[in-house]
Amino acid sequence: MEYRGHDRRQAQFRLDWVDVARGLGMLAVVIGHVWTRGPVRDAMYSFHMPLFFLLSGMLSRPQDVGAFTRRQLVGQMRPYILFLALLILIDQIIEPLKGGRPIFHQWPDDLAPVLLGGFWLRGPYTIFWFVPCLMIARILFNVALNRWPDVLDRRWALLLLPVLVLAYALGWWTQASPLGLLSVPMACVLLWVGAVWPQVRWRGWMVAPLGALALAGLAGVMPTLNMKAADYGWPLLSVASAIATSLLLFRLSALVTPYAGPVAAVGRASLVIMYGHVAVIHYLAPYMGKPWLLLAALLIPFAIDRLIRLSPTVSRWLH
Fold first, then answer.
1. DSSP annotation string for 147-215
2. Are 249 and 51 in contact (CB under 8 A)?
3. Is the Cβ–Cβ distance between 318 and 272 less than 8 Å?
4. Could you tell me the pTM of the whole model?
5. pLDDT bracket for residue 14 (50, 70, 90)
6. Helix (H, G, I), strand (E, B) or coil at 231
7. Most buried by CB count within 10 Å: which residue of 200, 258, 293, 303?
């Protein structure tokens, strides 16, 4: 019984560090959307979206393709549709009250950009590219995982090398991205890197090369990333910097988990914060300084998440 209790505590610790890492990533996302230009923005954009793909890859296991695909489509697209519809409705109310015009105001013509999503969703909806991109990437990655469960199998290289080339080629060719699908090839590569990382035994000397790569990205030495537009900066190097920063943050998350309860709470509310924070920034930016805007962009969606969790039915639909 003592062993089983210890095992449960270890499992809970592992879950908590994931929440801390997700919380740190969410903080970086919100900061990058509050400070829209300058070194702070560039530092956040150097790693914040790859972090989530890497983390998802670390948690990936081969699952039945049909069942996993159905769960992803229902579980991810249901809150996507509901949050998007809710924010469109809110915009129809708020903008006229401000004397402005809603972003989508030419119905039914505006149905096309709403349904296309991704590249066509801007302003308070700009983050909505991420969930469909991650969902499709996870579905495709799961198909490959079922074929080659060992992510160190050399056949992964035969698959991922052309996928990596495709990722850069698509980014150079266009920025048009329906439902964020333009970024799926790079997302698949990052999922694989995340899946490989748990098999690498941590060594103290790794801090030096990872730290150097991370600092190069955080300090703006190399071009930053914009995954929504499939802009991956310098080929390989900018993405490598994002990976290095994320891996160091994962290590930090595991070390500080016992002391990072608030950050873990942000991680557990990350879905609602992700969908809601840009709208808060969009509507309140003219009236608040950036530090207060950051606080509002975190706390208002966090409070909404708490309210959603009060109802199991609402939580099932929106989480």
1. H---TT-THHHHHHHHHHHHHHHHHHH----GGGGGGHHHHHHHHHHHHHGGGSPP-GGGHHHHHHHHH
2. yes
3. yes
4. 0.93
5. low
6. strand
7. 293
